[in-house]
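Subject: for your reference before the review

Hello V.,

The reviewers asked for a structural picture of the protein, and I figured it would be easier to keep everything in one thread rather than splitting it across files. Below is the amino acid sequence we used in the manuscript, unchanged from the supplementary table.
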Amino acid sequence: MSLGSKLLNQCSKPSGWLGKLTLWRMNGHHSKVTEWGLKHVSIQNHDTILDVGCGGGMTVARLAAIATEGKTYGVDYSEESVAASRRANRQSIEAGRVEVLQAPVSHLPFPDRMFDLVTAVETHYYWPDLNADMQELLRVLKPGGALIIIAEAYKGGKYDRLLQRLEKLKGIMNYAHLSASEHSELFSKAGYSNVQLFEEYDKGWICAVGRKRG
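And here is what came back from the structure prediction:
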């Protein structure tokens, strides 16, 4: 396996010492795009929120700092990510305001209609079945609840040339490389309504928001 594919695998499922380094880098590198993306949804202090692919836990911490009277959950299928996210949110976990679980996006350990908001930052690239996984997130949303996907890489964006190189690794691992319009279609086909798309081309950022009909 090439170095590039090894690094891409670490982004998908961090493990070992390289995984710890990757998660530390993610926490810093994703901060600004996350802050920008979250401006496109309304978050109330009593909301119940889920961050899918929570990585190093900084998005969970950011959400918990807003939803101070609600509860924020994080899930990741990487054991290393769950441990890192729990460390980053130790005090909020002890206070009962945050919970971090190991689980795949395809089979979430939550009942129907539980969450006001679901967030996914730099993670949907690696989901095993995008349409089915979007429907699984729709299942756990409350009627009127929102899913926001935030990313800093997309087909036709600023970093398109780099992403075209990653396309060559598709035979090694699953990697979804979507255009702006394909992001919108992804939401619509999975059953979301009021789909909105936002781009910051100069920074290579994109986010899409859709709601559960209610």
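For the response letter, the relevant points are probably these. The beta strands are 48-52, 71-76, 98-102, 115-121, 141-151, 193-200, 205-211. The first strand starts at residue 48 and ends at 52.

Happy to draft the paragraph if you're swamped.

O.
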